[in-house]
Please model this.
Amino acid sequence: MDRISDFRSHKLPITNLKSAKKLVIAIDGPAGAGKSTLAARLAQKLGYINLESGAMYRALALKALASKVSLDDEAALELLAGQSRIELRPEADGNRVLLDGRDVSHRIREQDVTEAASRLSVHPRVRAWMVARQREMGAQGGIIMEGRDIGTKVFPDADIKIFLDAAPEVRGDRRFRQTPQANLPPEAVIAELRERDRRDRTRAASPLVPAKDALIIDSTGMTIDEVIAQAGAMIAARQKQRAATD
Ligand code: DC
Model:
């Protein structure tokens, strides 16, 4: 059976959603749950754009590393953010990421940036800068944004909120197969992922929690088609409801 890590080769079983009203769809959840792939596939089918908010934290983290700004210095990081241009270019299988005009899509997936992004994302003023940019990007609707605080903070009034979760071992395994780190065994990838989870869930500013009105999908034992079918059914129902009331 195909699993989430095989998302990219699948066709969506959802039809006739494209012409309906343009919604804002928030997908949150921990790393490795399959958010990016779900967002990309839904966006393709709906004719929406998918925005990976985590890539923005990663891009700023890369700039902080390159500029030797301490990941603990909130004021300096906020200043650095203000001097940065971070662009997300949605493509069929994810986002291309430009930092001050330079394509950093691959570089930001490397281990040092992953770790730095996790540390940088605890700072409330950095988060406030990110949230403001993300709201601008989503202002027109017709977007699927994925991250950790999209349904709770960035778009608390989002039309659809999905919280995609999975057991840590499954997420670690998927992450390892997606981006095998040359010098990290799978156990180390899982340990690192657990540490990032802990930081995400326990930080004071916008911790990772499902929004009260989110549909929670635990993809641990599910195929990608099952995840998409659940999400798609919810979107179709909401579109129908909106069409009836608007
Ligand atoms: O989704 P990702 O792994 O690319 O995210 C990178 C880091 O950014 C991750 O450690 C959590 C953080 N992040 C966040 O705090 N809020 C978001 N909306 C998205 C990502």
